[in-house]
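Project outcomes to date are best conveyed with an example. Our students and postdoctoral researchers have been running inverse folding experiments weekly, and each run begins with a structure described purely in tokens. The record below, which covers 445 residues, was selected by the lab manager from last quarter's runs and is presented without edits.
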């Protein structure tokens, strides 16, 4: 193990030295022409924004399960693998017939029927720019009137030039096997934006998160505060992509009218709170300071002026200031929060009104993925939180409530898995394992 850690450290140091020796990013002729349209770099110079460190340990292979865990309010739960064989999935949606649609970051849409992953990707998805962990085929949502129109919405990064893309949202019609009549309802007029989440509100509007640059030069990171720029914003659109006339900045000079809220970093969770009708958003902070926010029209959430995290190179941000919304929950250290839902079913009565947040890694250390459960009082103030599934050592990308009232998770691995959580009486746990810290894996010292 000591030799492995020394080797990983040396690899990280060599990579950092090479990055320092390299010049700024080279642009293709197409990107150079595109650059003339924007006051910020279309491809960021990331040299020196994160100090060198050891290479992260990979997540261990996930065993076949099932596993039984004891939790605080619900007591015993069974965790089962529905299917494996996915590659860095991002999100999932449940169809009325019980099938599950899953987006993969590389640009594939997959379908699971009766617990079996169809080996052939769903036809109809467009070409995407898939890069690192923050660009590609992203979130998926069914139209509120899906039973009548069969419309499916997917957010993705639309290629414009080599290495350059714009956030976009497509709408397609599901015919049972493929997406048909696929077309964009929204294409951002900004580039170099990061991860995207989408959700329909109780008002029937489509809310779209567009991640702002989280690292890089000030000219890029500061864009989250620029009102004529879509980076670091949540948008509010009609289902055809047009702007509702009651958006908070419609008709206001210097503001793009689609903007609903500003001052966000990288939004990796966006959901409807079914108990309040509000849209809640969860975003990654820098080195610490992940946030869970209630979105209020026209409000500013502070990035990069305030944060409960700190710059990767050391300096702290001021945690708050007048004029900026405070998070409902924040994490220090960061859990790299990704995926967000509120439980409203009947299968887990002890979890009603709880928020569930996926975590990719904690405190910049891997493998430490987890699922966190947050309990609120009647005023939606945090009472306590519980960390679940840490012993599986898997990055959790998304969490959703199924139509059966159970919880479903996607791991962000390659290969990745779709995982189901169900309640189980303690006496019926025979045959399932209670994982040790090694979690039925090959993670050995």
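After processing, the design step wrote out the following sequence:
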């Amino acid at each position: 193990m000591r030799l492995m850690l020394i080797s990983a450290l040396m690899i990280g140091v060599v990579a950092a030295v090479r990055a320092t020796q390299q010049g700024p990013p080279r642009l293709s002729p197409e990107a150079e022409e595109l650059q003339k349209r924007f006051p910020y770099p279309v491809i960021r110079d990331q040299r020196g924004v994160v100090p060198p460190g050891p290479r992260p340990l990979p997540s261990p292979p996930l065993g076949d399960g099932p596993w039984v865990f004891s939790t605080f309010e619900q007591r015993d739960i069974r965790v089962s693998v529905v299917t494996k064989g996915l590659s860095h999935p991002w999100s999932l949606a449940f169809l009325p017939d019980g099938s599950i649609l899953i987006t993969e970051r590389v640009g594939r849409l997959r379908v699971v029927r009766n617990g079996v992953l169809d080996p052939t990707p769903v036809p109809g998805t467009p070409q995407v720019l898939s890069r690192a962990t923050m660009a590609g085929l992203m979130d998926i949502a069914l139209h509120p009137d899906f039973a009548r129109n069969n419309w499916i919405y997917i957010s993705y990064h639309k290629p414009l030039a080599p290495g350059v893309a714009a956030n976009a949202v497509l709408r397609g019609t599901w015919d049972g096997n493929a997406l048909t009549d696929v077309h964009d309802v929204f294409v951002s007029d900004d580039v170099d934006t990061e991860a995207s989440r989408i959700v329909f509100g109780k008002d029937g509007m489509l809310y779209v998160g567009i991640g702002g640059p989280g690292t890089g030069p000030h000219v890029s990171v500061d864009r989250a505060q620029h009102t004529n720029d879509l980076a670091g914003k949540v948008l509010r659109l009609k289902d055809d992509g047009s702007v509702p006339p009651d958006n908070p900045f419609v008709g206001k000079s210097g503001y793009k009218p689609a903007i609903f809220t500003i001052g966000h970093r990288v939004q990796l969770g966006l959901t409807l709170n079914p108990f309040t009708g509000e849209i809640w958003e969860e975003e990654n902070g820098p080195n610490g300071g992940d946030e869970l926010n209630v979105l209020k029209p026209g409000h500013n959430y502070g990035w990069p002026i305030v944060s409960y995290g700190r710059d990767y190179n050391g300096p702290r941000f001021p945690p708050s200031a007048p004029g900026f919304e405070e998070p409902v929950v924040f994490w220090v250290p960061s859990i790299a929060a990704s995926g967000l839902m509120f439980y409203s079913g009947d299968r887990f009565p002890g979890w009603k009104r709880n928020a569930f947040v996926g975590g990719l890694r904690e405190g910049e250390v891997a493998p430490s993925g987890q699922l966190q459960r947050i309990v609120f009082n009647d005023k939606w103030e945090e009472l306590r939180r519980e960390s679940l599934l840490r012993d599986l050592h898997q990055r959790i990308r998304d969490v959703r409530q199924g139509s059966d009232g159970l919880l479903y998770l996607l791991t962000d691995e390659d290969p990745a898995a779709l995982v189901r959580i169900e309640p189980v009486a303690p006496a019926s746990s025979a045959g399932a394992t209670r994982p040790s810290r090694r979690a039925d894996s090959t993670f050995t010292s």
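The chain has one domain: 84-419. The first strand starts at residue 67 and ends at 71. The training component of this project remains on track.
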